[in-house]
């Protein structure tokens, strides 16, 4: 049942991205071009998404289990730190350069478009690099704690 629900949710999400124009990099870049021919239509899409998301979070907040019986795991972090800011900046730069973010990249890849594949492979490479750096950081921190004098 979870796989079916995930499929339906992904299908609705992907169709929503197509209908809203979010899978069209030129439209997204038009939205991001505040100094030029700005296209504000995606701001309405984002406002609608925020409203739906806020409603879903409000509905699920008092619950311990989802409608399918899975545990509800809502985010608890409330701090703005260096990692969050740097990650947001890198995401924004990538979005601004390509006009594509992860959801639309999957739509473009599914449509067989080369730019979707290129973005998806670059995103996976960036994720793999992050994991390698995090593993090296954990190993380094572990080595420091083992060498610390008692």
Give an overview of the whole structure:
It is a single chain. The N and C termini lie far apart (53 Å). The protein has one domain (2-147). The longest helix has 34 residues, at 114-147. It is mostly helical and 150 residues long. Helix 2 packs across helix 4 and helix 5 (102-110) crosses helix 6 (114-147). The protein has six helices and no strands. Helices cover 71% and strands 0% of the residues. The mean pLDDT is 89. The radius of gyration is 20 Å and the shape is globular.
Write the layout of secondary structure elements.
Elements: H1 2-20, H2 25-32, H3 41-60, H4 82-98, H5 102-110, H6 114-147
Helix pairs in contact: 1-5, 2-4, 5-6
The number of distinct β-strands equals: 0
Order of helices and strands: HHHHHH
| Unreliable runs | none
Number of domains: 1
Envelope shape: globular
The span between the termini is 53 Å
Give the strand content: under 5%
**Number of helical segments?**
6
Q: Sheet with the most strands?
A: none
Summing up helix and strand content along with how strands pair, one would put the structural category as: mainly alpha
The average pLDDT is 89
User: What's the Cα radius of gyration?
Assistant: 20 Å
Helix content: over 70%
